[in-house]
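Pasting as-is:
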Amino acid sequence: MTWEAYLDREQPRFIKELVDFVAIPSVSAIPANIPDVVRAADWVAARLTAAGAEHAQVLPTAGHPVVCADWLHAPDAPTVLIYGHFDVQPAEPFDLWTSPPFQPEIREGRLWGRGASDDKGGMLIPILAFEALVKTTGRLPVNVKFFFEGQEEIGSPDLPPFVAANTDLLKADMIFSADGLQWSPDVPMVVEGLKGLVSLEIIVKGPRSDQHSGLHGGGIANPGMALGQILASLKSVDGLVTVAGFYDDVRPLTEADREAIARIPYDEAAYLAETGAPAPFGEPGYTRRERLWARPTLDVNGLTSGWQGAGTKTVLPVEAKAKINCRLVADQSPERVFDLIAAHVAAHAPPGVTAEVTRNPGRADPFLLPSGHNATGLAAQVLTEVYGRAPYRTRLGGSIPVMTTLLEHLGLHAVMFGFSHDDENLHAPNEFFRLDVFRKGQTAYGRLLERLGA
């Protein structure tokens, strides 16, 4: 039996296993769910062993665990490290789900449940391709290591020290990430760049407690108004970040970069319909795709001040808070950008209040594949075979912190080789994963391992 015939025969079992996997509520952001993150790690380790991998083990970090395993019986062949994550986003608000997020359902050829697409379906795919090759041929054309984590959705804060301390365990010749996207179910893509990330909070304080707006309005500063003034100073009305030095380290787009981005199809009306936005907006001088993929951003993610309930409570609030994140591009540093914003806030805080800027956990450096990267070329060849057309070469505005961690400590650029799609409600209610693509991804990983061995 060929390995592809094995995949066809075992597909009902594989789908049932994916259902069981998605049913584990491994939400890394919620402390009460930490035992479920550990349970998911145990499930992954057991599944790797059942597939034929060796030395499968759940390893501790300072926070959520990781799972490692290997198969190292191909002398003189390269070693491939495959990465993914088994933690998921919180599922709230639950009332917006058609079916409960951790009671997965199959409808219309799709598996619905939190984490089905990001990243449990994606990370199970290479395990199944590995199993098919081992069970039908007894061996692999390459050596394989697996590295799956349980904290990607909170920014992988404990992975840098873990990777630094375990370079021998993770050492490889190339890395492929099962956490990634394809352009559409029928069109492949290779993602060549990701943005970095820094997240922070501005806290503006005024009086010792809420004060009566009639008795004290006009006599003391209002932290809510002061925060609004600070936020307005961060960005011009046309979308240009006005923090001094913010753009100093940004690697300029070359003409070749801009031409490559321009070759990717873009429908502005469809984009606005997808987002529900009334009009486009962004940094002047760049196309929409250039801004989304290759220019840095600064955005407010949340605001809190004063009375939030129904009706009116006429007070001057004691404090006001804003959560902000910046998506960064090569060669920006999260630490430098944080320092620049903190200095800007200190300089622009109006009199009568104090303003503090704090870092939120998690950070990511920008990630950009070098031109001519060999593993990327091999991935593109496999995708062309499987999809019957060449992949688009794209960038994404999102961040995967581990990519730069692996580059720093292992000296390798990882290639995103995942099979999710951006319409699958990742991080939103009613997340789903296409089961026909689940099967297609298994073929792609099998062929990738064969090609790497050749």
